[in-house]
């Protein structure tokens, strides 16, 4: 499988409409990849809280339309990162969109864990409640493979990823707007989620500065043994990595740690 992570630089002087066009062109340039991944909230910037309401759009809004066409033009599976979604019957959501190579919407995921500790995203957006996986056919694997979808702050909650693995996930895709001051956590957690779930992790962040918050960049691809197969730098960059999706099955067969999970332990006695 060939995966391209587009680490978008968010320039506060660039309009959302202009960025959509520019990113669509970058997606089209990845023709030949099996999977392309964009970061979290790249239209506005993940920390540009004041822009969420102003730039929120319906699920099938401008970003949906532009990214669906870009996926179709490139002939790739596209995880188009996330947008501030305006639900006409509810709150805003931090919603990821996944498109097939024909430009059809394959899945939408509303971020479950909202960051902010009672401010920012945590109060401006509603929480999702459903785990989302997407089944990809070959050529990445003769039997195909399954993506598990998570977003940024979700990376800190291993139980979400266990749920994705139980649902069949073999490649865990994590778009993010991760701050530079916690970059060491970003790398550590991406490797931890890969090792403990014996899965590939594709974690795609942003570059630039969101509302005064410098971004970590350093998008990363990790294999099921925790080996870093590729890592971006701090600026805008396309990180392309080729890997064998079958390694998940062979790893889980050769070192079947997931079979030794003990569930339902409950609360310790005092």
Automatic annotation (TrEMBL):
It holds the Pfam family CN_hydrolase. Keywords: Hydrolase. The keyword Hydrolase applies. The keyword Transmembrane helix does not apply. It comes from the Bacteria. Gene3D superfamilies: Carbon-nitrogen hydrolase. One of its GO terms (molecular function) is hydrolase activity. Signal peptide: none annotated. Residues 1-245 form the CN hydrolase domain. Belongs to the carbon-nitrogen hydrolase superfamily. NIT1/NIT2 family. This is Carbon-nitrogen family hydrolase. It comes from Streptomyces spongiae. The lineage of its organism: Bacteria, Bacillati, Actinomycetota, Actinomycetes, Kitasatosporales.
